[in-house]
Design a protein that fits this description.
The complex is a heterodimer of chains A (350) and B (575). Chain A is mainly α and 350 residues long. Chain A has a single domain, classed as MetI-like fold, CATH 1.10.3720.10. Helix content of chain A is 66%, strand content 3%. Chain A contains 13 helices and two strands, in the order ααβααβααααααααα. In chain A, strands 1-2 form a two-stranded parallel ribbon. In chain A, helix 5 packs antiparallel against helix 6, helix 5 crosses helix 12 and helix 9 packs antiparallel against helix 11. Chain A is elongated, with a radius of gyration of 28 Å. Chain B has 22 helices and 21 strands. Chain B starts with 9 loop residues before the first strand and ends with a helix. Helix content of chain B is 36%, strand content 25%. In chain B, helix 4 crosses helix 5, helix 4 runs parallel beside helix 7 and helix 17 runs parallel beside helix 18. Classes of the chains: A mainly alpha (350), B alpha/beta (575). At the A-B interface, helix 1, helix 10 and helix 11 of A face helix 15 and helix 16 of B.
């Protein structure tokens, strides 16, 4: 909304609830929607916490033995950890005195003195972790939280970008129609004629691995659905009388498109945004699972699931459960929130 | 009569009907409060009221077509049809009654017919379902029915799809379906509201004729008392979910008791008189002594010394339609229209739908591009100006649209709606001044200042139309085009808005182009009237001349179709 049309200087004593206030009131009455909102908010807080380093900062630290058991099944045998321990001792080679021919021999005493000054604290590796550990003994819960950060961040930013592209192109195409509309329609048709997965894989193969690449890929392949919906909305609204009335008072095209029509279709964009967040979180997981996703030095739910493949064979199920349960929880909550949002934002306000 | 008593002379008795609606947030809205009325056999009962009066809800409650998840019909309500209470009937027998013994015609024929089946199919289906005719019998009977409701060449039209027919013909098909099973009761819910005046007359005549021929009863729901006067035996007047008055048509029209009925009868402009100010409901609700006796008549018409603001010469507008794959077909919406508009006067533009009257209005404002002709505004041809040059003139010609529910942006507060044109046209020195001007205008159009902070959906149709008018006034236009601006409003509200328009014209010396299909309203407000049909200008003359002494056949036909209202018992339908 333009600057001149914001709140008038007089105090807004009798201000009436606008669309968003009314929608919020409706949403508050929707129990499922509120529960979903709480879950989503919880995940977002986790994400922010992990991003700022408040929690899961040390996710990469190898705090437990390899494949540490979850603490609720401490007694279960852990062959991998035992094997690793024996490997350590087995590595010691029998001592052979070579000091007569060793050119470095005179320095040993000095080095040993200096080594003694450095304190080596061999961190005791825990046998069990709260929800188990992975191959390198990293805490699965911390990993899941860090993975959530990556996955949600990718999903949110990619969905925001896709919604932006879809809305601008859809608005242009729907409002302008004619040649502009035709051109954008052709572009859309050509774009969607390429199989979706192929397109993603092609993009992923060309660009170097990284979070920004994934966001780019998802946004640039995912705007098409939003484009269609927004375009349809704009076609519908462009012929409405209130837009004609705006034309009659001399409002420019840009003004009609963004100041008049956009607030009337914004609920569509919002619902699309939230459904695309879900879709993109899943897409990121799939990409990372296929090895085309986030780089090796970071973790996401997708890389966790990829690791879980080989772990499951040796009966270590906790990483799979941690990643899939947290993903399922968020995705379900987000989908339900989307449904509730759609109901709350139903434009049939009388 | 005490509830429970039934009189065998009555086909349907509605006793103490109460309908509540569940609203958002657990609120309950009383739509119908204790309504009781009877429909005698072989007669027409009119249920009259303005929007929100509960008339349609009552009718839908009778045939149980209210949405069950929202509507609650209270248990003490009774609808006795032929001795059975419809409200306690099981679903299966109710379905049998609905469509066979009681059938309904709705307001919008286009949306009531299924677009993918031919009209013949749809009539025949009713016959097969309810009477169990064979396919062949049903088809034959359907053809007879098409003939009976006056569709020309029924054999051929049986195969027509709904979109291939005009609105009037679609409504005839609806009527054919409704009477197919020889119902005892026909419920007609605003059947002529969406139709042109000439078609309205034909449909009303048809319903009256069918009622007599088939000895059925008709429950006719409408907001228009003038229509009722021509066909009803009994009238029930409703307001706010309650019955205000009921009686025979003679009683209601000649000796109305309730002030609301009196108000309804006199708010609507008629072609015989032209008071300076139309009476509104409030005048009648006040204590007896305060009623203004404003019988002062207004004289209208162009005079020789009128200053001409707008002169239109040979205006034409063609639309290009695609015909086939590559061919294009031109349709002339306006052909060679010429007229003059004088300062402070009103030009009425009348015609039926498709006559091009709205196109004229939109072309003048360059909301459509004209195909030819000139629009001289203070000597400047508006059609030749560039977009930039046109901006100066845009504020001087403004338009008020038909639908007050669609013409205000639902996401803007009234304040934003009023400030926007001032910002675009640099009116007012600063924000403060603009807000003050907006507040003053709100008061001028009769809206409280707090409206500034509210959203359009919080207002009724009439109030929204006032806001739309205020939006135009912010730019102080010389010419205001009213495109069916009062057509969507209830009669009582319509009178208020017409009074407001007249006051504003007197105050600001604005010129109006008043586009309407309603001849009575046009007669009331116009100095000069232009009659259009199929894009042609049929006749232009001073308002009084055209109504007293129409020169053209079409004008005569149009004037002849105006509902006459109550004409005394002699002219009422033969009993």
């Amino acid at each position: 909304m333009s600057a001149v049309l914001t709140s008038p200087p007089t105090p807004r004593h009798q201000a009436s609830p606008g669309l968003w206030t009314l929608a919020w009131r409706r949403l508050k009455r929707d129990k499922i929607g509120m529960v979903a909102l709480v879950v989503v908010a919880f995940f977002l807080l986790l994400m922010i916490g992990s991003y700022t380093g408040l929690i899961a900062k040390n996710w990469a630290k190898e705090v437990g033995v390899s494949y540490a058991n979850p603490s609720f099944m401490a007694g279960a045998e852990n062959l991998e950890a035992a094997q690793a321990a024996t490997k350590d001792t087995g590595a010691k080679v029998p001592f052979v005195d070579l000091s007569d021919i060793d050119p470095l021999a005179p320095k040993y005493a000095e080095w040993e003195k200096r080594t003694a000054e450095i304190k080596i604290t061999d961190t005791p590796r825990a046998d069990t972790l709260l929800f188990g550990g992975d191959k390198w003994g990293r805490d699965v819960i911390q990993k899941a939280i860090k993975g959530a950060e990556t996955s949600i961040f990718v999903g949110l930013v990619a969905a925001l970008l896709a919604t932006f592209i879809g809305t601008v192109l859809g608005g242009l195409s729907g409002y302008m129609g004619g040649k502009t509309g035709d051109f954008l329609e052709w572009f859309y048709n050509v774009f969607t004629s390429i199989p979706y997965i192929l397109l993603i894989l092609a993009f992923a193969a060309v660009f170097k691995r990284g979070i920004d690449t994934i966001i780019f890929i998802l946004a640039f392949t995912g705007w098409t659905g939003i484009y269609r919906l927004v375009r349809a909305e704009y076609i519908k609204h462009a012929s409405r009388e209130y837009v004609k009335a705006a034309q009659a008072i001399g409002a420019t095209h840009t003004r009609r498109m963004f100041v008049h029509i956009l607030p009337n279709v914004s609920h569509v964009c919002l619902v699309q945004l939230s459904s695309h967040v879900v879709q993109f979180i899943k897409a990121e997981v799939i990409l990372s699972f296929l090895g085309l996703g986030v780089p090796v030095d970071s973790v996401s739910w997708g890389t966790m699931l990829a690791e879980a493949q080989s772990e499951l064979v040796i009966g270590k199920w906790w990483q799979l459960v941690a990643a899939s349960v947290s993903m399922a929880l968020l995705v379900t909550a987000f989908s339900m929130l989307t449904d509730s949002l759609r109901d709350a934002l139903d434009p049939k306000i009388k | 009569m005490t509830p429970g008593d039934t009189n065998m002379d009555n086909l349907l008795e509605v006793q103490n009907l109460n309908v509540k609606f569940r609203l958002d947030g657990g609120n309950i809205f009383d739509a119908v409060k204790g309504v009781s009325f009877d429909i005698p056999r072989n007669s027409t009962v009119a249920l009259v009221g303005e929007s929100g009066s509960g008339k349609s809800v009552s009718a839908m409650a009778i045939i149980r077509l209210l949405p069950p998840e929202q509507a609650i019909v209270s248990p003490e309500s009774k609808v006795i049809f032929n001795g059975t209470d419809l409200l306690t009937l099981k679903d299966a027998p109710m379905r049998h009654i609905r469509g066979k013994d009681i059938s309904v015609i709705f307001q919008e024929p286009m949306t009531s017919l299924n677009p993918v089946f031919t009209c013949g199919d749809q009539i025949a289906e009713t016959l097969r379902l309810h009477i169990g005719m064979t396919r062949k019998q049903a088809w034959g009977r359907a053809e007879e029915l098409m003939n009976e409701v006056g569709i020309p060449n029924p054999k051929l039209r049986m195969h027509s799809f709904p979109h291939e027919m005009s609105g009037g013909q679609q409504q005839r098909v609806m009527i054919a379906m409704a009477i197919a099973c020889e119902p005892k009761l026909l419920i007609a819910d605003e059947p002529t509201t969406a139709l042109d005046v000439t078609i309205q007359k034909q449909i009303l005549d048809l319903i009256a004729a069918l009622q007599r021929k088939h000895h059925m009863s008709v429950l006719f729901i409408t907001h228009d008392l003038a229509v009722v006067g021509e066909i009803a035996d009994h009238v029930v007047v409703m307001q706010g979910g309650e019955i205000k008055e009921k009686g025979t048509a003679k009683m209601i029209f000649e000796t109305p008791q309730h002030p609301y009925t009196k108000a309804l009868l006199s708010c609507r402009p008629n072609v015989e008189s032209r008071p300076k100010r139309l009476p509104v409901i409030d005048d009648f609700m006040r204590p007896e002594g305060l009623r203004p006796e404003n019988i002062t008549q207004q004289t209208r018409g162009y005079t020789a010394d009128d200053q001409i603001v707008l002169e239109v010469k040979h205006l034409s507008k063609k639309f290009q339609l695609k015909d086939g794959l590559f061919k294009k077909r031109e349709v002339a919406a306006v052909k060679d229209a010429s007229f003059k508009l004088a300062r402070g006067k009103t030009l009425g533009l009348v015609g039926e739908s498709g006559s091009g009257k709205t196109t004229v209005g939109l072309t003048l404002m360059r909301l459509h591009d004209a195909s030819g002709g000139e629009v001289l505004f203070d000597g400047v041809d508006l059609l030749k100006l560039s977009e930039r040059e046109m901006m100066k003139y845009k504020r001087r010609i403004q338009i008020v649209f038909q639908n007050p529910y669609a013409s205000l942006n639902p996401r803007f507060t009234v304040g934003q709606i009023l400030l926007e044109p001032m910002v675009i046209h640099n009116i007012g020195a600063n924000e403060q001044e603009r807000v003050q001007m907006a507040m003053a205008l709100l008061q001028r159009v009769g809206m409280p200042e707090v409206s500034f902070y509210k959203y359009p959906h919080e207002f009724s149709g009439g109030q929204r139309q006032r806001i739309a008018i205020a939006r135009c006034l912010t730019m102080k236009p010389d010419v205001l085009i009213c495109d069916e601006s009062v057509s969507a409003l209830d009669v009582s509200v319509q009178a208020q808005v017409l009074n407001l328009l007249q006051d504003l014209q007197d105050e600001y010396k604005m010129s109006y182009i008043f586009i309407s299909h309603d001849l009575a309203v046009v007669k009331y407000i116009s100095d000069q009237v232009m009659v259009m049909s199929d894009g042609d200008v049929i006749e232009v003359a001073n308002a009084d001349d055209i109504y007293l002494n129409p020169q053209q056949e079409y004008t005569k036909k149009l004037l002849g179709s105006i509902p006459k209202g109550w004409q005394g018992e002699a002219n009422a339908k033969a009993a």
